[in-house]
Design a protein that fits this description.
By secondary structure, the protein is of the alpha/beta class. The longest helix has 20 residues. The chain is globular, with a radius of gyration of 23 Å. It has 14 helices and eight strands. Strands 4-1-5-8-6-7 form a six-stranded mixed β-sheet, sandwiched between helices. A two-stranded antiparallel sheet has the order 2-3. Helix content is 44%, strand content 11%. Helix 10 runs antiparallel to helix 13. The protein binds zinc ion (ZN). The site of zinc ion has 5 residues, from loops. It comes from Actinomycetospora straminea. Pfam families: Amidase_3, PG_binding_1. This is N-acetylmuramoyl-L-alanine amidase.
């Protein structure tokens, strides 16, 4: 699709305006040609911020999809499985959340009506005396509504992640990790400088990924890169790769940039909608990575945040995206250009993964676990303490 931004006009702009007006984010205007004006740009930014999208005020594919999804409220249409083109939208998300609350395992609430959502819906229908047709229409909705929100159960999908973590044991050996360099091939990510002085995000995160891969292999882990240096798959393709590899954890590496050269620091992201559903294991891992890297470097703390981004949402295992500093900041860039710093980052991430599997047992203060100690523990200790 074409990107829409300030100055554009025409039917696609009218559609965006209508969606934002419906949500009450944009003041309705009278008849006349639909323009992408300052007010619309502001409304798009507000919407993007609420949805955890990049707040650039431009309507690209991700924002457009989110706008379309946001227009569906539970009850607007019949929900059922379409394997060719799965239904997506906020109504699907609400249904999944409701099923999870009632204790039916519809998987991660991701707004996509897939096979697991259908199965959970059928179980619900069976238990409440309806014909288990897997279709969510008025009758099923009435039942879901009657039950109200008083009944609360666990969140099986996310609880399952925790269960798997507890069963996994403390050793790194045998764990399968997908390392995802955020950019590659023609997509260099953010970059500064030109010619021989050019520094690119793709180059830096590719290098950190290889350092991490080497250390993980040395610790007996199975580390897989989501793509080669010449490729740049979409986020959905990266998630698909991790899912089919049956990875235990996904680590996505990025470096940020900002119009202001003063912006700097480290941020980590895990799956979460900001309105309830959160991957607790993903959050824990994001926290470990964040704290280890802050303790080992002098980067500014830009926090750990839940985001519904595609890579985090579509992966069936805990996934963390980390933004390691700003290329547009002199100090962050100088640090990133130092190979020693990139080693420190790789080791900090590895130690954070180790911490996740230690489950707080036998732990050491943040920033003090050394690479040599991790290796020694992996080689000497029996696979006990489960
Ligand atoms: Zn990036």
């Amino acid at each position: 699709m074409q990107l829409l931004s300030r100055g554009d006009a025409g039917p696609p702009v009218a559609e965006v305006r209508a969606a934002l007006e419906e949500m009450g984010i944009l003041e309705p205007t009278g008849p006349g040609p639909a323009l992408f004006d300052d007010q619309l740009e502001q409304a798009v930014r507000i919407f993007q911020q609420r949805r955890g999208l990049i707040t650039d005020g431009i309507v690209g594919p991700a924002t457009y999809r989110a706008l379309r999804d946001a227009r569906w409220a539970l009850g607007d249409r019949m929900l059922l499985l379409n394997t060719q083109q799965p239904l997506t939208g906020d109504d699907v998300f609400s249904l999944q959340e409701r099923l999870l609350e009632l204790g039916y395992d519809s998987g991660r609430a991701d707004g996509v009506f897939g096979r697991q959502t259908e199965q959970a819906l059928r179980s619900f229908q069976r238990d409440y005396g309806m014909s288990p047709d897997g279709m969510c229409g008025p009758r099923t909705l009435r039942h879901l509504g009657y039950l109200g929100r008083k009944v609360t159960g666990g969140r099986p999908g996310l609880l399952r992640e925790q269960e798997r973590l507890h069963r996994a044991g403390p050793r790194l050996s045998g764990k399968r990790i997908v390392i995802d360099p955020g950019h590659g091939g023609a997509d260099r990510g953010v970059s500064v400088g030109t010619g021989a002085d050019q520094v690119t995000e793709a180059g830096l995160v590719g290098d950190i990924a290889r350092r991490l891969e080497g250390r993980m292999a040395a610790a007996g882990m199975e580390a897989l890169l989501s793509h080669g240096p010449d490729d740049c798959p979409t986020d959905a393709e990266r998630a698909g790769f991790a899912n089919s590899a049956g990875a235990d954890v996904v680590l996505s590496l990025h470096v940020d940039a900002n119009a202001s050269p003063a912006a700097n620091g480290l941020a980590a992201f895990h799956f979460g909608t900001g309105t309830g559903a959160t991957s607790t294991v993903g959050e824990a891992l994001a926290g470990f990575i964040h704290r280890e890297l802050l303790a080992r470097t002098r980067m500014l703390d830009c926090g750990v945040h839940p985001r519904p981004w595609e890579l985090l949402r579509l992966t069936r295992m805990p996934a963390v995206r980390v933004e390691i500093g700003y290329l547009t900041n002199d100090r962050d860039r100088a640090a990133l250009l130092d190979p020693g710093f990139r080693d420190v980052v790789a080791e900090g991430i590895l130690v954070a993964v180790k911490r996740l599997y230690l489950l707080g047992q036998d732990d050491k203060p943040t920033g003090t676990f050394t690479w040599a100690e991790v290796l020694q523990r992996e080689s000497n200790r029996p696979a006990a303490a489960r």
